[in-house]
Amino acid sequence: MKAWGIVIGIIFILVILCSPVLAISKSDLIAYYRTTPESPAFPDNTPDPAENPEFIDTPGYLPFPNDILPFPKWAFPDGSDDTIFSAQKQSLIFSLRPRPYPDIPVGKPNIYLYSDRDLTARVRLAPEDAITVSEPVYQPGKGWLVQIRNGSLNGKGDFLFYEGLVPDSGWQKEEGYVIRAAYREQDMASMLGQYGFNEKETVEFIDYWASHLVGDVDFVFYPQETGAVDRVMPLYISPRPDHVMRIWFYAEPLVSIPEPVMSPEKIVRDGFSVVEWGVVISDEYRINSSPSCLELI
């Protein structure tokens, strides 16, 4: 009888230890105590680029480009926003993955923030290692903390400026706009108007790029819309905006006339909205590649 009691006791203990609910709690608890400020805990099922060659072979691809990584809430005892850890993961992947494709600069992206209510926002980019210059100075691990007042950044329509390195591959080069050397301002204004850039954004784009492309050269500007930009330079903003429109243009000298752009992405400015423009261009086609900004915070 005593032997039966021992057997039943052992079975009871095994049932408890093998319970799925408790197994999850146990693994979570172990992961939690392995977490340190210097080494945030990432979920075990996060893809490892070294073990997943599809992440390496796909140009410009970074896992989880558009959303928050699925970290459990208890992994943030200090109350930090989980997008911070998501951006850190992107930087980690960027630094570890082989770079089979050459990098190319993305010149002078400007990020404009608009809101129908006053708010303070945290803005982060990933991978942070790819940022080469910024104004205001981008703080690794923190990004920018910005004030939106009276409808726009600082109440003055200011913008966040940065430059970075991105893969020189994977960009669409079928539909585009011809920017003639003799009519750069007019052609750029027509191109930007199709997306709905406002007057300030348009003027700042033209003021810089019309004078910073090399001399008597016609260019093609291939538009890269929000989804494509997010894949190579994810943007994390808290609180989450209602609308995010990021339009970059891949620019190179005109060799052949591109297909016309049939359905340009339309900028929406309701609620809390973010608008960004930038130009991906080789330094050999850009005059004075150092930053030259009209309005900075």
What does this structure look like?
There is one protein chain. This protein has helices at residues 2-17, 20-34, 53-57, 82-96, 184-193, 199-212, 226-232; strands at residues 103-114, 119-125, 131-135, 144-149, 152-153, 160-167, 177-179, 219-224, 235-238, 243-253, 273-280. The chain has 297 residues and is of the alpha+beta class. Strands 3-6-1-11-10-8-7 form a seven-stranded mixed β-sheet. A four-stranded antiparallel β-sheet has the order 5-4-2-9, covered by helices on one side. Helix 5 runs antiparallel to helix 6 (199-212). The chain is globular and about 95 Å long. Mean pLDDT is 76; it is low at 19-85 and 291-297.
In short:
This protein has helices spanning 2-17, 20-34, 53-57, 82-96, 184-193, 199-212, 226-232; strands at residues 103-114, 119-125, 131-135, 144-149, 152-153, 160-167, 177-179, 219-224, 235-238, 243-253, 273-280.
Percent of residues in helices: 25-40%
Which structural class is indicated by helix and strand composition?
Answer: alpha+beta
**Cα-atom radius of gyration:** 24 Å
Total helices: the number is 7
Shape: globular
- Low-pLDDT stretches are 19-85, 291-297
Q: What are the secondary-structure elements, in order, as H or E?
A: HHHHEEEEEEEHHEHEEE
* Residue-averaged pLDDT: 76
Separation, N- and C-terminal Cα atoms: 81 Å
Strand content: 15-25%
In what order do the strands lie side by side in the largest sheet? 3-6-1-11-10-8-7
Overall number of structural domains = 2
Oligomer: single chain
Q: Report the strand count.
A: 11
Q: Strand count, sense and closure of the main sheet?
A: 7 strands, mixed
